[in-house]
Amino acid sequence: MNLAENPFAKDISGRAAPHAVSPRGNDPRLYSAAWERAGHRVSQGLRPEPRDLIESPARPLRSLAFLMSVLGLGTVLGIGSAALIVERERPFATTSIGPWSASPTAGTAEADPYSVAIYTRSARVPLALGEGLALTAYTDSVGQSLSPACTYRITGSTPTARMWTLSAATAKGEMVETLAGRTFLTSLGLLRADDGTFTVTASRAPSSGNWLPLARQPQALEGLSFTFRLYDAPVTTGASLEGAVMPRIEKVACR
């Protein structure tokens, strides 16, 4: 028989021990109070049960402040990350061929929201699915970022197309002032080798052959990009680009 079951149990001092409360299955604080009423002294405080901590009254102001902090941090991170992606000016869901990348869904209803925001912010209109495909390069063929202060040689061939244009712009797609007054050249009248390949020299100074003018004052510009726009071309989807060949980009010199 334990302490709770024997109403006549006494402790070693001869005083009656509490018998209405058992430490098993009851609140320890009730046990302490009953023990003191019986004349005993509680030498140390009782450690609260885990359920007492869980069932303790909530602090509404602290909880509200914590909730508002989490919501505020989430809002800042969400808006900040979206702004960085849009500012980057490079759509998602791209297909790459060497340094050239294309976004086949940019001008369709399947375009992702970030791509739509990027083109809307820059006031650019992507080519529709039936019009053609644009492929842009931000690095040369060895992976180094393009610089408007350098001269590049673009050599090779493009996928079959009725015609194409090759343009130079900043890394954000902005047109620049050039010595020739233009920033592009077209496949019409292009000088080609016997095997159909071509070589384009992209530089600030005039060059013989196929010349793509670059910015006259590159110091204040933010990067460089080249864009091929293939019009009326069979390759208008990511799947059809598999196995396609695009020109190489080789850095010649910088000054």
Automatic annotation (TrEMBL):
<dbReference type="Pfam" id="PF06742">
    <property type="entry name" value="DUF1214"/>
</dbReference>
<keyword id="KW-1133">Transmembrane helix</keyword>
<keyword id="KW-0812">Transmembrane</keyword>
<dbReference type="InterPro" id="IPR010621">
    <property type="entry name" value="DUF1214"/>
</dbReference>
<dbReference type="InterPro" id="IPR037049">
    <property type="entry name" value="DUF1214_C_sf"/>
</dbReference>
<feature type="transmembrane region" description="Helical">
    <location>
        <begin position="64"/>
        <end position="86"/>
    </location>
</feature>
<keyword id="KW-0472">Membrane</keyword>
<protein>
    <submittedName>
        <fullName>DUF1214 domain-containing protein</fullName>
    </submittedName>
</protein>
<feature type="domain" description="DUF1214">
    <location>
        <begin position="132"/>
        <end position="233"/>
    </location>
</feature>
